[in-house]
Amino acid sequence: MKKNIVLYKKIPQEQQHRLAQHFNVTAFDEVNEENYAEFIEALKTANGLIGSSLELPEKILKNAPHLEAISTISVGYDNFDLAYLNQQGIRLMNTPNVLTDTTADMLFMLVLMTARRAVELSSLVQDGKWKNSIGSEYYGTDVHHKTIGILGMGRIGQALAKRAFCGFDMPVLYMSNRPNKFVEQHYQAKHCSLDELLQLADIICITLPLTEKTEKLISREKLALMKKTAILVNGARGKIIDEAALIEALQNNQIKAAGLDVFEQEPLATTSPLLQLPNAVLLPHIGSATTETRLKMVECAVDNLIAALESEPPISNWVNPNVK
Ligand SMILES: NC(=O)C1=CN([C@@H]2O[C@H](COP(=O)(O)OP(=O)(O)OC[C@H]3O[C@@H](n4cnc5c(N)ncnc54)[C@H](OP(=O)(O)O)[C@@H]3O)[C@@H](O)[C@H]2O)C=CC1
Ligand SMILES: O=CC(=O)O
Fold first, then answer.
1. Cα 27 versus chain centre, distance
2. N or C: which end of the chain has fewer CB within 10 A?
3. H helices then E strands: how many in the chain?
4. Which residue range is the domain that position 111 belongs to?
């Protein structure tokens, strides 16, 4: 007999068809206020879940007493309570690797956009305000040969270090749980403490996961350590930065600029002071958002769910393999 699964994201037809060959699928393009009760009802018989961009804490998953596996279409899994999943014996799978290069490309784009003031200057053209050759008040900052500081030297951190060192001749500093021989040998990267990195780097990029240890890691005190000319780029999770403190630092020109793909609350509120700041470049969480990569992520997540519900371990991309 087929197992029951709930799909809570719109995915390509072909991939939904693959799921339907293996499972009874209850599908939601997204979960919202209107279909929330229906979603909770579907959880009651669900053996598996697949989707992304939804907080699924214990109080929601309690409605799913038969749940065996969750396949998230993302590499990050901070929207789940891992301790609860472990306690309940629920397998969690994610989609690492397939999005690494695309996310690193986006991060480097955000570095360049922020340093070269791309949004601000593009709007001059679009608003018909480009009348003369631009003056020094609009000059940007060089990126090549500047020191990049990377927080978290995992898959995306390494791909970013490669772009910075090989493409832009940038000395690389990094902060990670442990030294990484590969980046030290190939990109001459130097392992340092968080405080050292914040004091020395010209461009600081966050590629850490959101955990209890990294939440608000970039606090008011840490922002105060950065150079006045520093650029801060976050392509990981918004809650790693104290956003109110960052807004103040940008308003007071305590640091030069920030490039943000992620925010404490998403979508960003239309009342956020960040929207008024010319020295903030804001993107709507698009790290992996290319047609090719999003398709690979869905394919990977579908494979993961089929394996999690139909195979014996070892299973790829298993976040909590301690759960049998
Ligand atoms: N903007 C977007 O659209 C996207 C955002 N992301 C975000 O990027 C994050 C990173 O992805 P990825 O590179 O694949 O993940 P990885 O797990 O490969 O890399 C994370 C790195 O951070 C290190 N780390 C974790 N906690 C700490 C800490 N407290 N101090 C220092 N280092 C730490 C890890 O070390 P160790 O292995 O020792 O724990 C690891 O090296 C994801 O978790 C996700 O949140 C990812 C894709 C797209
Ligand atoms: O934010 C995206 C992810 O894959 O994690």
1. 25
2. N
3. 13, 12
4. 100-282
Ligand 2: which of 53, 74, 94 to mutate, judged by most atoms within 8 Å of the beta carbon? 74
Q: Which residues pair with 137 in a beta bridge?
A: none
* Residue 194 main-chain phi, psi, to 5 deg: -60, -45
Which ligand 2 atom sits closest to the C-alpha of 237? 1
Complex ipTM above 0.85?
Answer: yes
Instruction: Tell me the per-residue pLDDT of 45-61, one tens digit each, with 9 for 90 and over.
Output: 999 999 999 999 999 99
Q: Over the stretch 25-48, which tens digit does the pLDDT of each residue have? A: 999 999 999 999 999 999 999 999
Same domain assignment for residues 298 and 263: no
Question: Using CA positions, which residue lies closest to atom 2 of ligand 2?
Answer: 74
Which candidate, 98, 154, 71, 100, places its Cα nearest to that of 297?
Answer: 98
- Give the residue numbers annotated as catalytic, written as ranges: 237, 266, 285
Q: Are residues 91 and 226 in the same domain?
A: no
* Amino acid, single-letter form, for residue 240: I
> Considering only CA atoms, which residue is closest to atom 3 of ligand 2?
74
**Number of domains composing the chain:** 2
Asked if residue 261 is part of any domain, the answer here is yes
